[in-house]
Amino acid sequence: MSPTSPVSPASPASPASPARGPVKRPVRIGPRAAVALVLVTLIGIAAFGWPLLADRQSGLAHSQDAPWLFAALLPLLVAVVVATIADDGMDAKAVAMLGVLAAVGAALRPLGAGTAGLEPMFFLMVLSARVLGPGFGFVLGSVTMFASALLTGGVGPWMPFQMLAMGWFALGAGLLPGAGRIRGRAELLMLAAYGFVGSFAYGTVMNLQGWVLLQGMGQGISFHPGEPLGANLARFAAYCLATSVGWDLGRAALTVVLTLTLGATLLKALRRATRKAAFDAPVSFGPGAGIEREPAPERGTNGSGG
Fold first, then answer.
1. What is the value of pTM for the model shown?
2. Separation between Cα atoms, residue 103 and residue 107, nearest integer Å
3. Separation between Cα atoms, residue 224 and residue 215, nearest integer Å
4. Cα(155)–Cα(153) distance, rounded to whole angstroms?
5. d(Cα 92, Cα 171) in Å, to the nearest integer?
């Protein structure tokens, strides 16, 4: 047979040598999603931090502004989801995976939240966002906290703050470098380090939300409305050291332990599920061939395969 037989062009499409390209994510942050996410973040920063800049006569309290924040924040969180769908970044399979992971995270949270800050849901957020991307991570963190609040009866003025803080925490995990290159022990160590630091950051941000409500705790740790920013930040640091370092340390340590012991298995399972779901594979209906699971190589000059 001649070396130029028609059989030879099919060799580049051999399944033994899959193409290596950029990592595909079920939720990619497109332009509209990015705008919505930035808007949510700016409103969240203002909601957490404005009491530090308010004057003494403002009558400030998060108990007064939280219902308004709740009304403003939830539509913006929904806007993030809508924007990702509008940018073709989220399909039915991604929504299904979001529901499963959010349900698991909501079920994990009550297991240890009342015991020295041991909250196993944090390691799930880190690993899920690492595999599925920052957009998915932000939505997953927010939805999981919302579902957890409904499950445990923890609905209150603090809930929108928790949703936003958890969304930021998972978003940061999805933005870690080397998503398509770093694997093995190095990846686990990076995720464990992020989980440790991020657990303290989450606790600190949530402390700020509650600290301004607590008055009369002592001259050195109470919030003083209208005082200089530096003085209040020094009191806030003393408050965190006195009240929450042990709690945050328990959360951070458990996140590190679970990431290093279960992380490899869970990362492999999430990546396998993502590959099987084939979020980025086009679905087309042929005239009798059913559904094409993945793009087929060209077979002729007209590409019809015919």
1. 0.76
2. 6
3. 8
4. 6
5. 21
